[in-house]
Each structure stands twice: as C-alpha cells, then as structure tokens.
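Our consortium's second objective concerns turning raw sequence data into structural hypotheses that experimental partners can test. To show how far this objective has progressed, the report includes one record in full. It was chosen at random from the queue rather than selected for favorable results. The single chain below, 270 residues long, was entered without modification.
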Amino acid sequence: MAVGIFDSGLGGLTVYEAVARAMPEVPFVYLGDNAHAPYGVRDADDIFQLTCAGVERLWDEGCDLVVLACNTASAVALKRMQETWVPADKRVLGVFVPLIEALTERQWGDNSPPREVEVKHVALFATPATVASRAFQRELAFRAIGVDVEAQPCGGVVDAIEEGDEILAEALVKGHVEALKRRMPHPQAAMLGCTHYPLMQRVFQEALGPGVKVYSQAELVAPSLKDYLARRPEFLGPGTASRFLTTGDPARVSSKATQFLRRQIRFEAA
C-alpha cells in the first residue's frame, strides 16, 4: 500500500513531511534524483526522460500512485506523461492543482467555468523551467478570470538549498522578491511554485511583508492526496515499507536532508 513521492532532490521532503503527518498509516517511498538536480535549468525532453525514469523506479517499489513533488516535473512533463506514457493501472499526480484550488477557493473536482476571485494580483516564484512552461497560468485560467500573475524565475535557489547553503539561499530569495516587486509592487498573494521553497518560506514572507498571503504546496497537497486515496483506494500499491532513495550519494544527501528537516533522515542508493 505504499505511495511514491518523486522530486529532483530535497525539496519534495516538504511534501513528504506533510502527507506522512496526514496519513501515518500509509508507507511512503521517497525518491530524490539528486544526481541530476536541479531540473529547473534543463530542457523539456531531458526533464521528461528523467521524470519517467524516477517514476518507473518507484513503481518497482510497489508504488502504483506517484506524486511528482517537483514543480518543474509537474509543469513540464506531467501532461505528456499522462497522455502518452502512464499505463491504465498506474497514476501519476502533480502538485500544481491543489495550490490553484486553494487560491481560487475551489473544492477538488469543481470543474465549473472560471469565475471572478477575490485575489487579483499574484506573485509566482518558481524555477526558470516552470516559469517558461506557463503551466501555472494555464491551470489558473481554467478556474479564475481577471487574475494578474507576475512570475519570477528564481535561479540559484534550488542549487543553494541542495548544497545546504542557507545563507546564500536566503540572499537569493531576497533578491528575487525585490526583482518581482519592481514589476508588481503590491501583490496580494504569493505562490511558492517549487517544493524546495517552503524551506525558505520565512524568508519569502519577511521579504514580501505581512500583508501578502504566502501559499506553499506541502500543506495543501496532503489533504488533496488523502481525499484522492479515499476515493481511489485501488491505487494504494502493494509496497509495505517507507524508504528514502536517492540517485546521489546517500551519505551526503542524508546529511543535507537532516540539516534542513532538523531530524535524522537516512537515504539509500536508488
């Protein structure tokens, strides 16, 4: 009954923490493709191939349902995977939709026409590949009208987090927020469109100011996934044990994960 969580590196651990708290009875297998991180500077075909390889590895662990905790993979590869690659007895889900549902105050499965929403000015912070894909704007347009989205590609932030350099990551976040505010001085809400970014949520919030509501995906994905599994329990796979896998060096990745989550995490070689 294991569920897979795939990320380009450490960022998806924010999603893992939230879903594990929400569903303590479910074993999760986490795979970080640290050897190829970051994805946000790669081209679409490369991201697609790497994501498919990671998902197949999680299927081998008995995870019939895999959550792409990587926004870049969700934005760039997911639609193509679902349309051309995922077999009928498996499911691969992304992390964008729960974020947009929260912003537009919609319940899961509400497919009514797009409507006016209270928030009109939204800042999106994401990797260069996610920004270039315009996947966030496309999904938002299905649900809301009249929303101005200003997207800021946050080059370097994922690399700094993966390296464990919190000082550099904080400096980069502050610089990216300043750059966005030059174009959109008064955003009403900010979307952290990368699962690495909740590790810097405090810095984003301080730089944006107390009047901006900051949305991050980890806490929004958990109830959405729990609801999905309640409706589709057949996609709880045959796996039975929680594991942490990495394509990188397990000792190094374990050390960085422990540093950021403030608790011991032990990775194995994928």
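The partners drew two points from this record. The chain has two domains: 3-94+218-269, 97-216. Residues 97-216 form a domain with the Rossmann fold fold (CATH 3.40.50.1860). Both points have been shared with the crystallography group to help prioritize constructs.
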